[in-house]
Structures are given as structure tokens and as C-alpha cells.
Design goal:
mainly alpha, Photosynthetic Reaction Center, subunit C, domain 2, 7 helices, 49% helix, binds heme C
């Protein structure tokens, strides 16, 4: 072996051990706080909103049609279109708003509930689909549960918070 190739070998060995050192001493992915990886949720923007009055107004506007499918009574309903219109309002109030600890304006423009302007509305639709998949395609087929009726809903994860916890420290 020539001196030159020895020098090359030594240089290569040195760089390999340097890389190994960096890999060993670099922080492992689990030591990075999860919070740093997840963007902050958007707070509810419209503070002076009277939720009871808004619900009463919508109830008045659909009077006599409460048992018709929500898809017929309202304008932009996709997932919940088969649900009676009156029940959709209860889902909005107790399922969606209370589960996340927000009022209607987190997902809706107070002047126009059919509007798609707020991104949270579409997120909520996608969450509904996810929830159905976890319940139906995963929990429902989990043999080890022995046919127990296991479900997840918005409250399972959100527990009154916009952003579900990923650890037991206060958010
Ligand atoms: C977490 C988000 C979220 C919150 C909070 C929420 N909604 Fe909704 N709302 C939705 C989504 C999503 C739809 C559409 C459902 C679908 O496509 O199946 C919807 C649809 C509606 C509609 C039908 C509008 C139309 O004409 O298409 C009404 C009315 C409504 N919500 C009322 C309310 C009221 C009243 C509240 C507060 C008590 C509320 N919502 C809170 C997400 C939300
Ligand atoms: C399996 C757990 C899980 C379930 C069930 C779930 N969510 Fe979520 N949701 C999340 C996570 C995780 C996020 C992202 C939070 C973040 O920004 O870090 C989120 C975010 C959201 C957001 C965006 C909040 C914001 O403004 O930043 C909305 C709206 C939402 N969920 C609505 C719902 C609704 C409505 C349901 C029930 C139909 C639901 N979620 C069910 C886990 C869940």
C-alpha cells in the first residue's frame, strides 16, 4: 500500500467515526418535545357571540322541518346529510362545540352558517370521517375486544380542548 492510499484510508476511517459520533450524540427523536413539532391551534376569533340566541334563531328558521334530513333543510351538509335537521343542531352544540371547548364561531361565520370560509369547518368534516374509520374499520374489527361496542368520538380526543393533549403536562 502506498503512503497516499494509507492516508486516504485513514481519512475515510476518521470521517466514518465522526459520523458515528454525531449519530450517537445527536438528540434522539423522542427527546424532542412533541409540542415543538405541532403547530399551534387557531383560537376562536369572534368573542362577542351569543350562542343561545344563534341556536334559537336557527331553530325558528327550520320550524316544522326538524325531522327532515339535514341535507334537505340546510345548504352545505355532506357527512351528516341523512341526520334529522333538529339533531344536527344538537350534534353541533353538544358534540362539536362542547367537545372542543369552543362556540359555533370556531368553525362558522356567525352571519352565515352555510359558509365554508373557516378552515376549521372542513377539518371537522375530515375529523368526522377519521372518527368513523377508527370506530368502524379498526375498533369494530378488533377481535381481542370480543365484540364490545367500542367507539371514539370528538370528546375521546379533544376533552374540551381545541388541541388534544399528547402528554400529561398542562398544555
Ligand atoms: C368543530 C366545528 C364546528 C362547530 C364548533 C360547529 N359546527 Fe356547525 N357545522 C360544522 C360542519 C363540519 C358542518 C357541515 C357538516 C357536514 O358537512 O356534514 C356544519 C354545519 C352546520 C349547519 C348547516 C349549515 C348549512 O346551511 O349548510 C348549521 C345550521 C350549523 N352547523 C350550526 C352550528 C351551530 C348553531 C353551532 C354552535 C352551537 C355549530 N354549528 C358549531 C362544524 C362545526
Ligand atoms: C383520534 C383523535 C381525534 C378525534 C376522535 C377527533 N379529533 Fe379533532 N383533532 C385531533 C388532532 C390530533 C388535531 C390536531 C391538533 C393540532 O393542531 O395539533 C385535531 C384538530 C381538530 C380541529 C382543528 C382545531 C383548530 O382550530 O386548530 C378541529 C376543528 C377538530 N379537530 C374537530 C374535531 C371534531 C368535530 C371531531 C369529532 C367529529 C374530532 N375533531 C375528533 C384529534 C382528534
Amino acid at each position: 500500500m502506498t503512503n497516499l492510499s494509507r492516508a486516504k484510508l485513514a481519512a475515510a476511517a476518521l470521517s466514518v467515526s465522526l459520523i458515528a459520533c454525531i449519530l450517537v450524540f445527536a438528540p434522539s427523536p423522542t427527546s424532542i418535545a412533541f409540542a415543538e413539532l405541532v403547530p399551534e391551534p387557531t383560537p376562536t376569533p369572534e368573542a362577542a357571540f351569543d350562542q343561545e340566541a344563534a341556536i334559537a334563531k336557527i331553530r325558528e328558521s327550520i320550524k316544522g322541518r326538524e325531522n327532515e334530513p339535514a341535507g334537505k333543510v340546510f345548504k352545505n351538509v355532506e357527512n351528516l346529510s341523512e341526520m334529522p335537521a333538529g339533531r344536527l343542531l344538537a350534534v353541533m352544540q353538544f358534540g362539536y362545540s362542547r367537545s372542543l371547548g369552543v362556540d359555533c364561531t370556531h368553525c362558522h361565520s356567525a352571519e352565515n352558517f352555510a359558509s365554508e370560509a373557516k378552515p376549521q369547518k372542513q377539518i371537522a368534516r375530515d375529523m368526522h370521517v377519521m372518527m368513523g374509520k377508527i370506530t368502524g374499520e379498526m375498533l369494530g374489527k378488533m377481535e381481542s375486544l370480543g365484540g364490545r361496542q367500542a367507539i371514539v368520538n370528538c370528546t375521546t380526543c379533544h376533552r374540551g380542548q381545541i388541541k388534544p393533549a399528547t402528554n400529561l403536562q398542562p398544555n
